[in-house]
Specification:
- By secondary structure, the protein is mainly α.
- Helix content is about 70%, strand content about 0%.
- It contains 14 helices and no strands.
- Helix 4 (about 90-120) packs parallel to helix 7 (about 170-180), helix 4 (about 90-120) packs across helix 8 and helix 5 (about 125-135) crosses helix 8.
- About 25% of the residues are buried.
Length: about 300
């Protein structure tokens, strides 16, 4: 409660805690958040504990914690599950997909945000309207048209004089989708709008072109947004299931999320091993968010608020 003395906005102000009503509201909100947090954590903790149980114990024993849990059992369960699920190839595929998405998620929306913010070509208002409209479009509405486009890119037509190239069984559908992220375009545009025009004018007087201004001035000054987009893109790519499952039928290109899904249908994989696979697949995004949560919140504030 000491931090309330530094609060300048929000549902409760520091002065509210000096009144009985304010204290009651504070503790009601605190209790509600605590209960919701516990309810959200229980399934995850149950899966974590189940990963270190025997399969028979999972089905026969209703206890929350394993009957026997030692460091030796923990290390043995992790090593045996890792060998059994064989995540090596899928992790490499996921990393290739993720870093490709990261490149497109920064460059394409960055260039688009710079053009809409500083260059402002004819039709900027229409383009902004289309960008906002795509944010409101249900994702299910785009699934079939996108898949047809991936089958014969970019013409969505395999007959006639215009015949496209198939992007199926490649990472290009995920990379192109990351570059076409409308939310990232708005983040970069709002951030560039908040940067003083004097920096751009000074660079132009020094003879710098638009590419030089973008890479030497705009991008470094928008570092919080770049960090935010990078973290969210890598997390989303690691957890992405639907698109890789839809376009990657080649077993050598399977990603981590698809690998975990297919383990469920494998009768040779026991339940505790499947639980361990879920835990292993969840560790990278969890650690990423835990370490970089300050940059995630900072990126939203910088990109979403125009000064």
């Amino acid at each position: 409660m000491r931090r309330f003395s530094e609060k300048t906005s929000g549902v409760l102000h520091s002065s509210d805690l000096k009144t009985t009503k304010g204290k009651i509201v504070y503790w009601i909100l605190f209790a509600a958040i605590l209960i919701i947090s516990i309810l959200c954590l229980i399934p995850a903790i149950w899966v974590l504990m189940g990963a270190f149980k025997d399969t028979q114990e999972i089905y026969k024993n209703i206890s929350f914690f394993p009957e026997n849990l030692t460091w030796e059992i923990v290390i043995t369960r992790i090593s045996e599950s890792w060998k059994e699920v064989q995540f090596g190839n899928s992790i490499i595929n996921t990393l290739i997909m993720a870093f490709g998405e990261l490149f497109f998620a920064i460059t394409v929306p960055g260039f688009a945000g710079y053009a809409l913010s500083r260059l402002k070509p004819k039709g900027t208002t229409l383009i902004m309207s289309l960008v906002l409209w795509t944010l409101m479009m249900p994702s299910s509405m785009r699934t079939v048209p996108l898949f047809i486009s991936y089958m014969s890119f970019p013409f969505a037509n395999s007959n006639g004089m215009f015949e496209g190239v198939s992007l199926l069984n490649t990472f290009w559908p995920m990379w192109l989708a990351a570059g076409a992220n409308s939310f990232n375009v708005l983040l970069f545009k709002n951030c560039f709008d908040s940067i003083s025009i004097s920096y751009v004018e000074a660079a132009k007087l020094d003879g710098s072109g638009n590419l030089g201004i973008f890479f030497k001035i705009m991008l470094p000054l928008s570092l919080p947004v770049v960090i935010y987009v990078s973290i969210m893109t890598l997390n989303a790519s690691w957890s992405n299931f639907f698109t890789p499952y839809l376009v990657l039928s080649d077993e050598t290109l399977v990603t981590t999320a698809v690998k975990v899904y297919r383990l469920k249908a494998d009768s040779s994989i026991e339940m505790n091993t499947y639980f361990m696979a879920l835990i292993l697949a969840s560790v990278p995004p969890f650690l990423t968010f835990a370490v970089f949560q300050r940059y995630i919140l900072g990126g939203v504030n910088v990109g979403g608020v125009k000064s």
